[in-house]
Design brief:
The chain is of the alpha/beta class. It contains 13 helices and eight strands. An eight-stranded parallel β-barrel has the order 1-2-3-4-5-6-7-8, surrounded by seven helices.
């Protein structure tokens, strides 16, 4: 689905946030671990994700599972990922798979076939650092199958500057050059960028450069990003961006220590995040 569809879902929910689903077994409340029939890691993870989706689907436009958190549990985890995406789709949610794929052209084509040619995922994160031949297969499949991609530009991790902030010929940074390439590569309806909430000045600079590009903004919540930090990601109409939070939502039950009501605490965190972000967008 194109970003126009995602924006419509954001507008309908009045909430420009995405619930990241990055599960570990330690995030699973004890009552699920003890329930008969939830013996495998994949079963427990899916039960957690299903409960989170049930609690929040009327509030959020999208989910963003990170594939690594499923891959580490082997086939069992990958089955849980597929079931999670399918369940989210059944609730009308947009599904962004955070897999950060990217390789030489032929391998990227295989990755694209795996993730963008079916009905499970609407969008995929991709790594541009092998150049256009590693990205073109994803772009082509976005056009063919009405899907979308988010290209890594300025990531939210502390050491992102080790390479992304290197000054290149002409005086700009490497991440700025990547952003310019993204603009050259094509349709803003289905090619967006990842810019971290932990770098608000870069968010602002990139919005000025990429006026019509959709932004995926990680780093809110547990990584330190706040509502004021993400405000620059949005365009002059208060649109064009979606902000991710994972651990702060998934693990909201841990602070009160009430795993039985994990969905309730996740819902409260989603509402808090929504209200904080909408408050700064409208200000």
């Amino acid at each position: 689905m194109s970003f126009k569809i995602l924006q419509e879902k954001i507008n309908a929910k009045k909430n420009p946030t995405v619930m990241g689903l990055d599960p570990k077994l330690e995030y699973v409340p004890g009552h699920i671990r003890k329930e008969p029939g939830f013996g495998s890691p994949g079963d427990m993870i899916f039960e957690l994700n299903k409960g989170l989706i049930d609690a929040c689907h009327d509030l959020i436009p999208a989910i963003k599972p990170q594939s690594a958190y499923y891959e580490m549990y082997g086939i069992d985890g990958l089955i849980a990922l597929k079931k999670t995406a399918e369940y989210a789709k059944s609730k009308g949610l947009y599904v962004i798979l955070d897999a950060k794929r990217g390789d030489i052209g032929a391998t990227s084509e295989a990755y694209s076939a795996a993730y963008l040619r079916g009905d499970i995922y609407d969008c995929l994160t991709v790594n541009p650092y092998l150049g256009i031949d590693g990205i073109q297969p994803f772009i082509d499949d976005c056009e063919k199958f009405d899907k979308s991609i988010f290209v890594l530009v300025k990531t939210s991790n502390k050491s992102s500057g080790d390479f992304q902030d290197i000054i290149v010929e002409g005086g700009g940074t490497l991440y700025e050059e990547v952003a310019k390439k993204v603009l050259e590569w094509g349709n803003a309806d289905n090619i967006g960028v990842v810019i971290g909430a932990t770098y608000p000045q870069q968010l602002s600079d990139m919005r000025k450069l990429m006026k019509n590009t959709f932004f995926l903004v990680p780093g809110f919540g547990a990584q330190g990003g706040a509502a004021d930090d993400v405000k620059p990601a949005f365009d002059e109409n208060g649109e064009g961006a979606i902000v991710n939070s994972s651990r702060a939502i998934m693990c909201a039950w841990m602070k009160p220590g009430d795993g039985e009501n994990f969905g309730k605490y996740a819902r409260e965190e989603v509402i808090r995040m929504r209200d904080a972000i909408m408050g700064v967008i409208k200000s």
